[in-house]
């Protein structure tokens, strides 16, 4: 009986260790994780607000370098303020200001795409950014710690191995190598989301209090990098599609022009082959 009890206890502990990490968090830690993501959501909202201000106010658009300088100053101030419980409110305000300044800076690259009619590229990039971030964070939450560590290590090894192919792209430039390098660049912040999520869970399971601002800063950087790389990838794909459509249209116009002119530069108003005996 004692052996059966010991075996059942060992089996239950093994099941707990192989269960999802998110399911083994205490209510206190879950509340702290929710606070991290709420801080991140507020920062992303402030970035969207900064973008809208830059879109509506011409003075902000004309002084985008000032917005970049403000973002750098806020980031420095956020780094210098100690991460203590008393400074959470102050650091959160600095983070939200940093998000607004970052949104104004991003407008310098996104705004022209919107004005040139590529709103679909921006909307698709936003949706894919949220989907990629949520999926990688949820995958770490739903897996056990060994599974997450092995998956992160395997993905990082694969990315570093394929990264050598970008050297071939520099020596032999091609559209395929450019797409591969851009996809590898997109994979890096996605893996960073998984790493930051795992670090947050490890810190929480060790009994430490989570600083919402510190982890929100890391996640916000991952979000911005995913969005920017998606914008570059989608814009490149959209430009290639537009060039292909334009080339097809030019080929069609050339064919119609050759048909009207009979293959030469002089326009002819009679068929290419006239009936015999007409003298044409």
From TrEMBL:
Keywords: Membrane, Transmembrane, Transmembrane helix. It is a multi-pass membrane protein. Residues 257-269 have a biased composition (Basic residues). It is found in: Membrane. Signal peptide: none annotated. InterPro entries: Bax_inhibitor_1-related (IPR006214). Its main location: membrane. Pfam families: Bax1-I (PF01027). Residues 8-26 have a biased composition (Low complexity). It comes from the Eukaryota. GO terms for cellular component: membrane. Belongs to the BI1 family. This is Bax inhibitor 1. It comes from Coemansia javaensis.
């Amino acid at each position: 009986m004692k052996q059966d009890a010991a075996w059942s206890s060992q089996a239950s502990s093994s099941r707990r260790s192989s269960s999802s990490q998110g399911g083994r968090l205490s209510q206190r830690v879950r509340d702290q994780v929710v606070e991290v993501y709420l801080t991140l959501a507020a920062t992303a909202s402030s970035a969207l607000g900064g973008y809208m201000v830059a879109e509506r106010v011409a003075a902000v658009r004309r002084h985008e370098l000032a917005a970049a300088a403000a973002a750098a100053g806020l980031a420095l101030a956020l780094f210098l303020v100690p991460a203590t419980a008393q400074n959470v409110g102050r650091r959160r305000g600095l983070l939200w200001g940093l998000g607004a300044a970052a949104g104004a800076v991003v407008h310098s690259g996104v705004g022209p795409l919107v004005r040139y009619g590529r709103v679909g590229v921006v909307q698709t990039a936003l949706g894919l950014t949220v989907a990629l971030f949520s999926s990688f964070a949820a995958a770490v939450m739903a897996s056990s710690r060994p599974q997450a560590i092995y998956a992160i290590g395997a993905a990082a090894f694969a990315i570093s191995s394929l990264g050598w192919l970008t050297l071939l792209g520099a020596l032999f430039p091609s559209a395929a190598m450019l797409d591969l390098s851009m996809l590898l660049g997109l994979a890096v912040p996605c893996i960073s989301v998984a790493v930051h999520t795992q670090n947050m869970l490890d810190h929480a399971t060790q009994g430490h209090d989570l600083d919402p601002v510190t982890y929100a800063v890391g996640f916000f950087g991952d979000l911005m990098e995913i969005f920017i790389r998606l914008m570059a990838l989608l814009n490149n794909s959209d430009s290639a599609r537009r060039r292909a459509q334009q080339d097809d249209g030019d080929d069609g116009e050339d064919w119609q022009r050759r048909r009207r002119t009979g293959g030469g530069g002089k326009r002819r108003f009679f068929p290419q082959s006239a009936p015999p005996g007409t003298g044409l």
